[in-house]
Amino acid sequence: MKISSFALSFVAFLLFSATLVTPASAEEKEKWDISEADLGPTKTLRWTVDEGTWMDLDVSPDGKWIVFDLLGDIYKLPITGGKAQAIRTGPAYEVQPRFSPDGSEIAFTSDAGGGDNIWIMDNEGAEARQLTKESFRLLNNPVWSPDGKTIVARKHFTSGRSLGAGEMWMYDVTAGGSGVQLTKKPNDQKDVNEPEFSADGKYLFYTIDSTPGSRFEYNKDPNTTIYTLRRIDLTTGKEITVANQAGSTLRPEASPDGKYLAFVRRVRTKSVLMVQDLETGLQRPVYDGLSQDMQETWSIFGTYPGFGWTPDSKSVVIWAKGKLQRINIDSGEATPIPFEADLRAEVVDALRFKQKFGQEDFDVHVARWATPSPNGDQVVFQALGYLWIRDIGGGTPRRLTNDTHFEYYPTWSPDGSQIIYSTWNDQTGGRINSISLRGGTQRTLVDEPGHYAYPSLSKDGQWLLYQRVGGDRYRGHAFTNDTGVFLKPMSGGETRKVTTEGSRPQFDADDDRILLFSWSTKKKTLFSVDFLGGNRREIATSERAQEMSLSPNGEWLAFRELWEVYAAPRPRTGKPIALGPKMKNLPVKKISNIAGEYLNWSADGTTLNYSLGSDLFRADIPGMFDGSSDPDSIALSWKAPTDIPNTNVVLRGAKILTMDSRGIIEDGAVHVVGNRIVAVGKSADIRPSEARDIDVRGKVLMPGLVDTHAHTGSSNNGLQAQQTWSFVANLAFGVTTTHDPSNNTTMIFATSEMAKAGNILAPRVFSTGTVLYGAEGDFKAPTESYEDALRHLSRLKAYG
Questions:
Q1: Which residues form the signal peptide (predicted)?
Q2: Phi, psi (5° rounding) for residue 712?
């Protein structure tokens, strides 16, 4: 057993990104063995316990032994209690042991092969073999058929959310194989779990989340019905509901004599062991001293640990509140089964990276909408809330304006003389402006307040195209009364609303149609309409593309899918082209080495530009296809000054909670210079000569709080509010540092840098960026090799 804070984080990563499978060799995929993985330096811990948490167990058919799991290892114990014998240990996480009907073997769930599968070993822990070999639809909760020939287990299915639904699958114990499906998931999010054979093997019981709707919801009411008990006839395939009751029916276990079914039910605030007479259907409570079940949660491994009957069908052995209990089903008397287990853990040293706080400057890592000028000499981009420009060959970026409103979506005029962009101000809304590069003259092109995105000029300079988007809970919903895509004549005249369908508008090669990207869950479409919004033509479709862009010459299609950038030739067929990384109908080329976003083209349509973090990449597409060139990169990062206040103050007279060995200091003082606390102590001992005193008597001072799991959110459409209420609320409650484990990568790291620069008021902002997601969706992170994992981490690292 190896455990560490790093390992716990890694487990969370696996829950979100499905499973990490081994890299493929030249001939076949190497077999992954977690026991041989080098996870870094370790130290050995040894200790002895007489209780445990969430222990699945089973009773041997002869009634002499109990097998149970504890901290991911498997132990065997005489049913009378005593010293537990470790029969399966190591770094793999192994749980849910089940004796075979003859007691000679034990089935269990193990991730030794890289993901949760069903394994079998003999009853002493030897001769372990992997029965199922799933790499994505992982399995748990094995249960033997009474004849010992098959095992049924729960197979896990995800769709748009990481923790999804389940199905019951049957596997031949000798041959294994891909399994036989017994049940079909009712939808993509409701749990199906906890299989159990009837004693005669004719039926399979299982539990199912039967709450209304097709979406999993947190905080369900356990006093109503969450889980119902279903039964499938393994001869006819007919299914019936056995129990549908308040408090749910959880973790069914059939008695060996076939007369009873034990299960767990919530009764008000207690989880209660119940027994149902299968002939009469009568239920009765047996024992109310169980630990809390997990029916309100997404309980992939079951709502309560597995338990077992004694062979005489008179008692149940179950884990409850740390102990093993033998419950007589007639009297309800609980007899503790004492045990003692010697644990050994190889603890992997946590992987930690030292963070720097309060430095005088910082590296800017987030450069958005980086776009070279038409002649290729300069590049404009957005960072720290504002627009910046620099020579393409190098140099320090300079701000394009001196305005205080935030600036977004920069684009060049076709002749390169102007930059068009949108703005945002929390009080007055947004506008669309232009600035001349030959004197700095600024003009407001759209003066009606709104939330604006994707402004651009036609090649002849006669038309301004832009999108008016909706608000959100950070920018608010003012100025959102009319959203859609608009055309404005630059010579004057009435602005025309073109369409409400699609986003990311741009002119086509002939300036007589508008290209739009339509984003839906089932299909992404690049299409065009005329200037009146009619005569719709589909150009390309994709299942997962997050961006699609047609080159100005109409010869190439670029798209971004699952973080990577691709390109394909675009033949004119009059029909949409189905784009994808594995498309066979046309050649397709992966352009990016790690990832990319913010696709845009050179004026002649041969060079594709894209960004990753603070790097701009330029790819000669014809050269990429004939093998004569690779993308070149331009680093746009620079060191920006940190916003450090010019302060020298002493907060004097407060009660100070030091949170260290000094404890509480009555009548204390805290000396702050700039962004540093330089002294903490008794008020009489801190008397700097030039500091300003602030009387805080009657107050309590303590170090700022660090929220390590803070979902502070991000604005939509790339438009950051000037002040985010969630950050101010955190500061008001004393949180001075936040860590967001799941947020939009670009937005949250841009926000972090804006806070460092003093452009927004916020705590220190740390984040993982976009979560490494394994469920279906446009932003999932497929991880089937070490190289895949490294690429995803490199992608996130590019943003700081």
A1: 1-26
A2: -85, -10
DSSP conformational letter for 723: S
Query: How does pLDDT run across 291-306, given as a tens digit for each residue?
Result: 999 999 888 899 999 9
* pTM (whole model) above 0.70: yes
* Torsion angles phi and psi, residue 351, rounded to 5: -85, 115
The values of phi and psi at residue 216, to 5°, are -70, 135
Contacts of 538 (CB under 8 A, 6+ apart): 525, 526, 527, 575, 576
- Residue 622 is assigned to a structural domain of this protein: yes
What is the per-residue burial (b if ≥16 Cβ within 10 Å, else e) of 4-18? bebbeeeeebbebbb
With beta carbons less than 8 A apart as the criterion, state whether 227 and 205 touch.
Answer: no
Q: Are residues 252 and 379 in the same domain?
A: no
Residues 612 and 669 placed together within one structural domain of the fold = no
For CA atoms 658, 662, 664, 669, give the dihedral sign.
negative
Dmax (CA) for the chain in angstroms is 94
| Nearest partner of 147 among 96, 197, 194, judged by Cα | 197
Pair 529, 605 in one domain: yes
Let me know if residue 116 belongs to a domain: yes
Q: 481 with 539, same domain?
A: yes
Helix, strand, coil: what percent of the chain each, to 5? 5, 45, 50
Q: What is the pLDDT of residue 10?
A: 31
pLDDT bin (cut points 50, 70, 90) of residue 30 is low
The three-state secondary structure class of 516 is strand
For 414-473, give the secondary structure using H, E and C: CCCCEEEEEEEECCCEEEEEEEECCCCCEEEEEEEEEEEEEEEECCCCCEEEEEEECCEC
The CATH code of the domain that includes 685 is 2.30.40.10
Residue 16 confidence (pLDDT): 34
Q: Pick the last residue of a domain from 652, 682, 699.
A: 699
Question: Which range marks the domain in which residue 481 is found?
Answer: 361-640
pLDDT for the residue numbered 561: 96
The structure tokens 């805080």 sit at 696
* Least confident segment among 350-354, 401-405, 527-531: 350-354
What's phi and psi for 596, nearest 5 deg? -175, 160
Q: Residues, the chain, total?
A: 800
CATH of residue 452: 2.120.10.30
Per-residue confidence band for 521, with pLDDT thresholds at 50, 70 and 90:
low
Eight-class DSSP state of 779: T
In a domain, 760, yes or no: no
789 CB contacts (<8 Å, ≥6 apart)? 20, 783
Asked if 635 and 646 sit in the same domain, the reply is no
Same domain, 552 and 648: no
Work out how many domains the chain is built from and give that number.
3
d(CA 299, CA 306): 13
State whether 65 and 164 are in the same domain: yes
Residue 406 to residue 387: CA distance in whole angstroms: 9
Q: What's at 190, amino acid-wise?
A: K
Query: CA-CA distance, 597 to 745, in Å (whole number)?
Result: 11
Residue 586, pLDDT > 60, answer: yes
The CA–CA distances, whole Å, from 18 to 58, 85, 116, 156, 300 equal 28, 32, 10, 10, 13
Domain boundary among 348, 369, 403: 348
503 in helix, strand or coil? strand
Can you tell me whether residue 654 is helix, strand or coil? strand
Dihedral sign computed on CA atoms, order 578, 584, 587, 589: positive
Q: Residues 6 or more apart from 666 whose CB is under 8 A from it?
A: 655
Tokens of 789: 């994992």
Tell me: the pLDDT tens digits for 506-515? 999 899 999 9
Please indicate whether residue 783 or residue 695 has the higher confidence score (pLDDT): 695
Rounded Cα–Cα distance for residues 321 and 316 (Å): 16
Question: Do 139 and 230 share a domain, yes or no?
Answer: yes
Structure-block tokens of residue 323: 């102990």
Q: Mind listing the pLDDT tens digit for each residue in 706-729?
A: 999 999 999 999 999 999 999 999
